[in-house]
């Protein structure tokens, strides 16, 4: 069974029409969410499922598409309304196609807001809508100033406490980026590197030993710069960096084989989970392979040094264990 | 002939899907505008025309829907890309249904940007796309800080110079509002009041005697507070306020008869142009009349003190003169 | 009996000499308030009374002149010292001429300050000085950034709680305006519109059912744009806008008859209170009538559709009831 | 002959009533300056002259009272209107009592404004109104952020160039102070110390060899800390600090004899000018002497180590030379 | 016995090498402090002692060199790490040469931080390291914005409470200055003037009657401007300024004899403590005397109007009493 | 011959003592640079050379140590003084050991400053001191706000123009990082990723076809995420990403073999230059290899798929060509 833990909702255009209106009105006045009919939703779902079938994915976890999160749009209510709406769409999609999808909740984050403001929506998604994970944006400022607290900061503790209680993994994934010099797609990578180092240098795991973080996009730059951080750790007599890294999990959303090979070498198959973000950035035909970049199953299958057990963990086992799946 | 000078484009959902993507990506990376097929556009147009036919409007001027302008979204390129795209949509709509529509250009305004950055798009719209007017947002900050320069400030002169040369009227219309205490729909009203007073207290008309401003929504609060401003003018021996007000034009986008009556009394039929924003805020059934609020033709026709000539000017004559229409 | 609920203190020049010194010194060093002799105060009062007699006003409620409030002058102590001083002047004026005046308290508001800082002065004015109302500035930023919380925001609740206990009406009236594009006199109007909408969209009346708000200047732009807000309410199935508006009271400080007629039509005589701000903005001879603009008694008396009972309420009854007057 | 080069205008209360109105209205709307009658002005002048006669002062140079300058009040036009108005008052006072007074011009400074904005008023005062000097505020931010450029910075050069051409001395005198921890009267002292060091460490005198600066209040803290700055100069092989200090002039507005003695020792009688600021801060009876603190003539006369020639320079000679007086 | 209460640590270059690294790394990553060997430290100490011997100083209190405090360097941890490290160096120096030195603690201040963050290091220095005093920076912003609260503000009370309990005197001494127009050495002087006035105008001594403040550099500008502040006090019927000043103590770190004479006249020998900052700013040969500027012992000895008892107090007695020394 | 193009100066502690003083004084007052004797400098050099000899490096290019650059320390003069001083130290080191070293210039960058301010020091270093390259910090804000312009922005063009004329390669290397969540060592990596993408998406190479950029640390995260950017390029019909990347050069300062192998695969040996930063972050014994992490020569030599020609280019040939070396 192939479980793709990193997918995002594919919604009908009406969802984005509402997004435009919400952006324009800033939620004031706001009356009610637009009603989407099942047919419109299902039409998109069928296309989505077709894409999954094509590459042999059996199940995908879907969360709100991060770059559309509007976390930094003022005022705060925009983030709350939009997140609730998109989570609802996801819940309906999972309900319509429970064989293919599970929900991962977006959170109504906002720059400078009390992180506790996210807890009601978190609980609603997990407890009422049955979502299996939660997506966390380490930079709700979306590239603006001031910098947010690092994920190792106590700012996040009230949220962590609740997530640990709910026992759902956190997918670390940043959102849009307002800086003219940094595209959102590169911002993802940089934020992941910062998130990893902030967590690994912190006391988070002492306070929340059961918290499970999955870092998107195979961990930003960190697997490529292991030597640098190994040296720092040795210099300061702190725990071995390679051991520390294994406190975290990583997905395989990295569209080159040579990079995935590196990831398997330095992270290992116990801490990697199959993910593709399909459809998304990688849904472009790679002229050299004749497959889309995000068709990662054959890529992983072709890595010679991986055992069948390794592959099974990555494709299925790790996800089932982490997300408490009984399928 | 009934000419509605204040309408906005009604676009297919795909337009807003692009808006969402542009907001999320901030135009980085950006490749090209999505291709919309004529059918999708025409489907919306037919619904739009049906609404116009229903209330007896023969022609409507359409501009980008102001509250969706994204003028204050960072970085500046978002405003440029979005404005160009929407103006293109409008141009295609006018081309598809030239009997019903004329285009009014949006401008790629941005907080703190040089106002000259708007001139290329202005010229493109008027000279290449044949637009008959231009929509100007007096608050590209969209309710943020610092306050923009008032419309009477020299900041705007390079734009005014170009508009005067192109000889198209300016529709004053603000956009979204980020302030949690002020809805965009109220922001429209307040910005119109500020715009009127800033212009009337300035030297703009001495420098640009042929510039034509049309103030949306019947002039914000000013017609209701004529006494206040009359008193100020008398107190300071400046030109009579009622005379000054006639340097500007106003539309009839005000959804109560008692207010329109007041407007006709204090502004007069030479300076009022028929406008409805249909479909828009007023497209709701008024249970007392059985008509939508924006069905303003019968309202105006029922104002007893207006002559036929008055009505002809408001419905048709003033617009033809101001916008140099030969229909 | 004619009761003008919207007047401001007319003080001797020495009061403003102290204001200049306070502005210059920012209250540091500060020793004590200057001593004003009764004669200087009474001389101004007699002129003030003469103006009231001339237009047939029997009693006027006087508060600090809002545009001089210095709420945004740094540091906070300037606002406290100045407000206390002016409230003292008003108390002496009422004491000297109790037949003509009642006091309405200014509050020592300051941008970003805890609203509780205003409560001691509020209680002093009502409980010790016998004031019958309180004047509230919805924008202590005086046009600066960031925007203050709307009057519907919980920020104001501690103050509302105290005012409800004291059972005095609130006169909503903004102050100076630092923005170069917006005169303070227009800022009044815009702030009133914002205040009305913020209150009517809030839960304030659920928490404080006995709170009484009087909006200055006949409610800013709202009576002129009833159609717009009626449409919004119908669109969202919220309570009828016309009903909502009646949760508030309004004064008649609007210097044109056509506007007052509109106000009576849409607000009604139960919610309008006679006010003139005399002497003030409207104290200029209207060449068309031969009266000053703020001589509003004959204007109201001439409105044909008002009954004697209507006029009695507006001139006297509503004020007596709202302000608990026993005269 | 006793010439007091540091006095400020004593104006009737109506001047401050206008100040209050200007502060409240921010100059918008603004019509015209209030008309003051000669009697009101002369009444104040006679009291002022009586004070001068009492302490034996023959002539005083008067400038706008610095702490009332409103340089940092937004928007910029407030500073322009107020400065022009006060300079006009001073011009009328000099005209009414030319035997006693000479004018020193205030400048319409404003935070962040182009310093060239001050030149028209400077020229008007010197060329049209016959003023003999100009008062310069080294901190138009009035204690706010960001810090202004030091007086040695090129920011001020366009103004210096014009002042050098007009050949009038500059009296360095700061204004109000918004910081809660620093009174304006202490701010004067600190700003003078900063101004001295900024000028002495700069190239100003190389570019403007004929510019004449008079530092108020005997030079802030510098004469008391000569040793500190002597050491710095020796340490860095720069010109001797005592020599450098003599590029500037200082007044005697320091209300203790022991401090004046120190000043004469370290500055010398060639660079000190008699000044009292009478009436002002020092116009309080000193219980130990039976004179007011600002009655400095007997204090200086009693300094034993001063020769008659020294005293003549300080009381009269230096002022005549610096200010090109022919009396 | 000659006790110099105002000295600063003279540390080996390795200390500043660590400072550079800490500045560069901002304490992230940070492992441990560098190990300095006793020899390197003692070599510097012997040079330091030689300087003291040369001028006849028997004991000096040493604190962190203030202009190197890095209080405003972001993030806050830089200040904490650096302060702890330098205090440790001082503790070792005192331990190595207990006959010559006593420690005065630096505090890890930081702009906007809770002042309670300084208490653990304060207690460590006094209770564990045996320091006899504490150095307080009244401007941890180091010339930046916004201004810090004045020393009379309640912001500082939690710290004062702890210091009073520990019964150690506070040496007021500011640090670096980021403003281009103000050198740190002048900033010292201005901050001292502000500190004095803020304390003397406050309630600090009512709340903390046993708190002892020593103002560096002979009190900034205040002794030179006693007349000004005497006048203010008399004008407002507040306590006599000369009496108030004696609530504070001052050191003699002022490198000109005429200024020290003035200080002894206005402050008196009960409130002055011998201090030189040797080696420091004054360690330059004064060509007129053949001694370094900071060789203040002969200067004070040569002040004719001081009695032997006066000198004994200043050189030794006041320090022993204030700092509870048993030597 | 082994040429290490990425080394930094190893300076005696006195250099950092001066850094501390400069930080504390902010260059005001500033007299002259401290004099360092040749012996102190040479002692450090000999240790440095010993390290190079140990690992078989024949020549190293040395630049200012980036994390100590103090680019964001206010005011701007700190950056200018410090950069000039360190460049001077490097020039002396090269002069003392010309067989081992070549100089790479630091630039006196500062947030918000005109980039032209760096040109005099650039020219001095190349034309007078004979430096062979220049080090450019893409983030002179050092992690502060607002974000600097990306390296592809026209802001940098005046500098690029001059560098192209001087024909020296640019080493891209960021400096300190003020953000509490991001260590400077990770900031290096993130800034490199941003720099690469900003340059590759820009027109810089069209305007400056001869400009040569060397990206430090093997290009941040980009080689690890080639798939992601390949997909973007294909999606938008822009030039192939792998080709674009070859417009830049990269060094080998990456301390893990698996990452270097990846780099050689995706970048190729024509665009990689040997670099180690020795001594620096990697100068720690790797317990698994028994070598320090920065002993990269054997690591590269052991990469099986590299030919001798490949290695020659990386160790020597590319550097000679790029830096115009004749050795």
From TrEMBL, chains A, B, C, D, E, F:
Report any one BP term from Gene Ontology: secondary metabolic process
Q: Which domain of life is it from?
A: Bacteria
Keyword Lyase, does the record have it? yes
Q: Which Pfam families match?
A: Amidohydro_2
A cellular component term, taken from the record's GO annotations: cytoplasm
Q: Does the keyword Lyase apply?
A: yes
Locate the Amidohydrolase-related domain: which residues? 3-325
What's a single GO MF annotation on this record? hydrolase activity
Could you list this entry's UniProt keywords, alphabetically sorted.
Lyase
Protein's recorded name: 4-oxalmesaconate hydratase
Source organism of this protein record? Alteribacillus persepolensis
């Amino acid at each position: 069974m192939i479980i793709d833990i990193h997918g995002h909702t594919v919604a009908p255009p009406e969802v984005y029409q509402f997004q435009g209106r919400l952006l324009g009105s800033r939620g004031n006045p706001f009356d009610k969410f637009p009603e989407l009919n099942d047919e419109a939703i299902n039409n998109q779902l069928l296309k989505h499922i077709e894409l999954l079938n094509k590459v042999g994915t059996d199940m995908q976890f879907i969360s709100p598409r991060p770059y559309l999160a509007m976390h930094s749009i003022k005022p705060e209510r925009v983030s709350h309304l939009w997140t609730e709406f998109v989570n609802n769409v996801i819940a309906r999609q999972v309900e319509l196609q429970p064989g293919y999808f599970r929900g991962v909740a977006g959170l109504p984050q906002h720059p400078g807001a009390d992180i506790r403001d996210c807890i009601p929506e978190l609980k609603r998604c997990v407890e009422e809508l049955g979502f299996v994970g939660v997506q966390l944006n380490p930079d709700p400022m979306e590239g603006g100033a001031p910098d947010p607290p690092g994920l190792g900061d106590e700012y996040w503790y009230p949220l962590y406490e609740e997530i640990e209680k709910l026992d759902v993994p956190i997918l670390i994934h940043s959102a849009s980026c307002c800086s003219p010099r940094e595209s959102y797609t590169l911002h993802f990578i940089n934020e992941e590197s910062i998130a990893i180092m902030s967590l690994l240098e912190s006391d988070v795991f002492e306070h929340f030993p059961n918290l499970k973080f999955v870092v998107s996009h195979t961990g930003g730059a960190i697997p490529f710069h292991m030597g640098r951080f190994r040296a720092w750790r040795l210099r300061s007599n702190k725990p071995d960096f390679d051991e520390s890294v294994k406190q975290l999990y990583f997905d395989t959303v990295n569209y080159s084989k040579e990079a995935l090979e590196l990831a398997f070498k330095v992270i290992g198959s116990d801490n990697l989970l199959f993910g593709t973000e399909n459809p998304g950035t990688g849904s472009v035909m790679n002229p050299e392979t004749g497959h889309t970049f995000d068709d990662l199953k054959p890529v992983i299958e072709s890595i010679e040094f991986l055992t069948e057990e390794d592959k099974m963990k990555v494709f299925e086992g790790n996800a089932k264990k982490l997300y408490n799946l009984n399928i």
